[in-house]
Amino acid sequence: MKSKGEIWVSAVLFISLGVIVISVILAAAIPMINRISDKNTIVKTKEVLITIDDAVNTVANEGPGSQRQLDSLVIDKGELDIINGTYLVSWSLDTSGEIMEKGVEITEGDIHEILNSTFVEEVNKVRLWVTSDKVNISLNSKFTSPFKGSYSVTIKNTGKFINDNPVVEISVV
Fold it and tell me: What residue ranges do the domains of the chain occupy?
């Protein structure tokens, strides 16, 4: 009789120990997985911003009527803002990971990035953007900025100028 009770006590202790070990591993792994996921999202977004920036600059330099079609522009996480009247394309994402040092602007080519604190504890906002004072953007879309999801984008040189800068129309469908 005594041995049956000892077996059950041992079984309960081993199960409890297993649950505790799994909980500790998950508690350490989940923030790391989220940070890696956010870093991958940032890398993909940089590629999107480079594609948009290259297309805008190419179309602006080629002259009136020049256009480029960007199929399947996908924004899975975060929000993409296209500011009408200037050349500012900005993407932002709320993240719980400290992906980079807070408050320090980093420039990689034409892409600028910064991580700032928010009013919510342990939530930061990472922001990436491309800008130029040599081009003006005219946004033509049935959707309002910020954009999130999958879109087809057409970038076209309108042939118009504002302050000696070409106006490039970005159509988001």
Answer: 2-172
16: CB partners within 8 A, 6+ apart: none
Q: What share of the chain is helix, strand, coil (3-state, %, to 5)?
A: 35, 45, 20
Q: 107 forms bridges with which residues in the sheet?
A: 112
**Do 73 and 150 meet the contact criterion of CB atoms below 8 Å apart?**
yes
Look at the block and give the residue holding tokens 């805008």: 56
> Which among 40, 119, 126, 54 is positioned nearest to 90, based on CA atoms?
126
Q: Tell me the whole-structure pTM to 2 decimals.
A: 0.79
Per-residue pLDDT tens, the chain, 173 aa: give them. 557 778 888 889 999 999 999 999 988 888 888 888 888 888 888 988 999 999 999 999 988 889 999 888 888 888 999 888 888 999 998 888 777 888 888 888 889 998 887 788 778 889 999 998 889 998 888 887 788 888 889 999 998 898 888 989 998 88
